[in-house]
């Protein structure tokens, strides 16, 4: 290649750089920033998970010691500071169970409702609905319980939802509707759930007909 051809190549490169070079540099910078941001986000998320895990461990200790004040403090901290982390939902569900057992159904409802409204995880949300419907059944708020179960659950929860729906309907003496719910529950439940299936069959038989 002679000097003239080399000059032409150099001029082409300069022209190309003038047109595209700055854009490529900016794209490269943006890629680096995105990568750094992604790593920083993962690091901060990991720190949050670690903190939430420690707090969840403290919750279990408070439960073992029957320290209801500590349980209440921890669950509020979880819901306030770690609301997007699974441990917060686990904490709220456990706290709701403890509070209901101690007679504080109002606080129990509040935590279950928090999981239902704020959880992105469908499993936690449906578990909270199932427990809330059970709590409403105990309080004889049957129609409210049925409203909680009105949404279509994922396949793995259909059997459990229908069982609870059957309980709510039977409590209202809606025998035929309860019978249909129990039958659907048995149809949808895993055959490995032997004890639960036997109990539902017992309830179905008790309805007669």
Order of helices and strands: HHHHHHHHH
CATH topology descriptor of the largest domain? Serine Threonine Protein Phosphatase 5, Tetratricopeptide repeat
> How many E-type strands?
0
Distance between the termini: 99 Å
The low-pLDDT segments are 35-41
Strand content: under 5%
Please identify the structural class as seen in this structure. mainly alpha
User: How many structural domains in the coordinates?
Assistant: 2
Largest sheet: none
Helix content range? over 70%
| Tally of contiguous helical segments | 9
Average pLDDT across residues?
78
What Rg is obtained from the alpha carbons, in whole angstroms? 29 Å
Shape: extended
Q: Quaternary state, please?
A: single chain
CATH classification class of the largest domain: Mainly Alpha
Tell me what the CATH architecture of the largest domain is.
Alpha Horseshoe
């Amino acid at each position: 290649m002679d000097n003239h051809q080399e000059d032409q190549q150099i001029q082409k490169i300069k022209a190309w750089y003038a047109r595209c070079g700055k854009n490529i540099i900016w794209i490269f910078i943006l890629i680096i920033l995105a990568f750094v941001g992604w790593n920083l986000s993962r690091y901060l998320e990991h720190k949050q998970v670690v903190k939430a895990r420690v707090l969840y461990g403290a919750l279990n200790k408070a439960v073992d010691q029957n320290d209801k004040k500590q349980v209440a403090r921890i669950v509020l901290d979880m819901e306030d500071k770690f609301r997007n982390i699974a441990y917060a939902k686990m904490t709220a569900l456990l706290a709701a169970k403890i509070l209901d057992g101690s007679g504080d159904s109002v606080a129990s409802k509040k935590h279950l409702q928090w999981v239902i409204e704020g959880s992105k995880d469908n499993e936690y949300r449906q578990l909270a609905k199932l427990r809330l419907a059970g709590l409403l059944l105990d309080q004889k708020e049957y129609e409210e319980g049925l409203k909680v179960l009105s949404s279509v659950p994922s396949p793995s929860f259909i059997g459990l939802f229908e069982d609870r729906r059957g309980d709510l309907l039977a409590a209202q003496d809606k025998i035929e509707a309860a019978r249909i719910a129990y039958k659907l529950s048995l149809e949808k439940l895993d055959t490995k759930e032997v004890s639960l299936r036997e109990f539902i069959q017992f309830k179905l038989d008790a309805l007669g007909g």
